[in-house]
Write a structure and sequence with these properties.
Elements: E1 7-8, H1 14-19, E2 25-30, H2 35-50, E3 56-61, H3 66-71, E4 79-84, E5 87-93, H4 98-106
Parallel strand pairs: 1-3, 2-3
Antiparallel strand pairs: 2-4, 4-5
């Protein structure tokens, strides 16, 4: 069960949702029978909420979407792949903590607040 902000990717939607995305996309390759994958679910769901508007975060069930899993040579799960501009820019295999996931994303996600320029200074000279 995915959280409210966690997307579900499939073989059919992968190119449109992930490769053609305007923002970085974190994909959690998982399976229902995988204990470490289930342990990652709260982390993935929390990260999806924290990065709303800056990145897409979702899950791809490898049992139901074997084509995409084979395309990216997913041999162990959970595997996290971070895509940017249609290319893999980061990868983690195995269960990792939220801090590690933040490190993956922060290197490639533009902070919404950093896009705003500071107001010009109006210091008067005396």
């Amino acid at each position: 069960m995915a959280g409210a902000n966690t997307l579900t990717f499939t073989d059919q939607t992968f190119d449109a949702d992930v490769l053609n995305s305007d923002v970085p996309v974190l994909v959690d390759f998982w399976a229902e029978w995988c204990g470490p994958c289930r342990m990652m679910t709260p982390t993935v769901d929390a990260v999806a909420t924290e990065y709303v508007g800056r990145a897409k975060v979702g899950k791809l069930n490898v049992d139901e979407n074997g084509q995409t899993a084979m395309r990216y040579n997913i041999r162990g799960i959970p595997t996290l792949l971070l895509f940017k501009g249609g290319r893999i820019v980061e990868q983690k295999v195995g269960a990792v903590g939220k801090t590690e996931v933040h490190k993956m994303l922060d290197a490639h996600v533009q902070d919404v607040q950093s896009n705003t320029q500071p107001a010009p200074s109006t210091v008067e000279s005396r």
